[in-house]
Amino acid sequence: MSGIVRDRITGEPVVGVRIRAAELPQYSISDSIGRFTLSLPPGSYTIYSGGPCFTGDTLHSIEVLPNQNTLSDVTVGVAHMSMEHTTINIVAENHIGNYADLIVRNAGSGDLVYAFETEQISPASDWLSIVPASGRIVPGDSLAARVYVSADTLDEGTFDYFGRLYLHTNSCPETLRVLDVLAVILDADNSNPVASEFALYPTYPNPFNSSTRLRFAVERASRISLAAFNLNGQRVTTLLDAQPLPAGAHEVVWTPADLSSGIYFVRLDDGARSFSQRVLFIR
To answer: How far apart are CA 38 and CA 176, in angstroms?
Structure first.
C-alpha cells in the first residue's frame, strides 16, 4: 500500500506523518514529498495516520489484494501556533493584583493542544498563575489566556517581580515557547503627596509590549494633557485632554491597542509647560 499524505486544508504534502494498520505493528513515515509505502499482506485493514504534531485521519476497510499496490492518499491536520507577545508586563497593586491577556492563535489545519507552566523566579513564591492552564484550540480559532499576578509584600515600596511562562504545544517544530513575565508591584497606600515640581518621570517598563506606567507630578492644581505621538509628530493616543487634576503625583497606565511596534513620544502639557519622553513599544 502506498500514497501521499496531504494537509487537509492546503493540500500540500506533509512530511513526518506516521502511517500504520490497526491490525499490524509495522508503520511507515511520510518522506520529504509526503509519500509513504506500507508493506501489508493481503486483507482488509483500518489505516491510522498521525504523530505528535498532527491530527490524524482514519481509513476504514482498505482492501489489499495479492501482488497489487493499493493506492490511498491520506489527509492530516497540522497545528500552527502564532503569538505576538514575547514578554508579559504587568503593573499590579499590592494585596490586590492585576492581570494581562495573552492571545494564542491556531492558524493551522489541525487542533492545537497546549499546556502552560509557570515559574516564579524572583521572588520564589506563589504569585504567578494563568487560566486556562491547558486545553485545545481548533483550526482558525484563538485563545485569550489570562495571566494573573497576585502579590503580598510588606508595603515597603515598589517591587520588581520576575517569572516565566512555558507554553507547550503540538505545533512543530517549535513545541516550546518561553515568555518572560515582568511585574511591578505598587504599594497599596493610596495617598497622593503634594509635589513640589511639574515633572514627567521615567516610564516603566520601557521598552514595553503590553502596558507601561506614565508617572508625573504637578505642583498646583492644573488642567493636564497627556498624549503619545509617532516619529512623524502625529498624535496616536490621547490619555488626558485638559483634565483638571489636583497638585500631587499622578499615574496613567497606557495600553496601546492598535499601534505597531516602534518608537513613540509621550508629552505632558499643562498649557504653559511641557515635557516629552521617548518610549519603545514592542508587540
So the answer is: 32
Per DSSP, what are the bridge partners of residue 97? 93
Cis peptide upstream of residue 205 (ω within 30 degrees of 0): yes
Helix, strand, or coil (residue 94): coil
What span, in angstroms and rounded, lies between the C-alpha atoms of 260 and 252?
20
In 3D, which of 22, 15, 14, 16 has the Cα closest to residue 47? 22
DSSP E strand stretches across 123-273: 128-131, 134-137, 142-149, 159-169, 176-186, 199-200, 212-218, 222-229, 235-245, 248-254, 262-269
End-to-end CA distance of the chain: give it in Å, rounded.
Answer: 48
Q: What nine digits make up the cell of 147?
A: 495571566
- 172-201 residue pLDDT tens: 888 999 999 988 887 654 444 445 678 888
Residues with Cβ within 8 Å of residue 146, at least 6 apart in sequence: 99, 100, 101, 102, 130, 131
- Domains of the chain from N-terminus onward: 2-78 (2.60.40.1120), 81-186 (2.60.40.10), 199-281 (2.60.40.1930)
* pLDDT, tens only, 9-26: 999 999 999 999 998 988
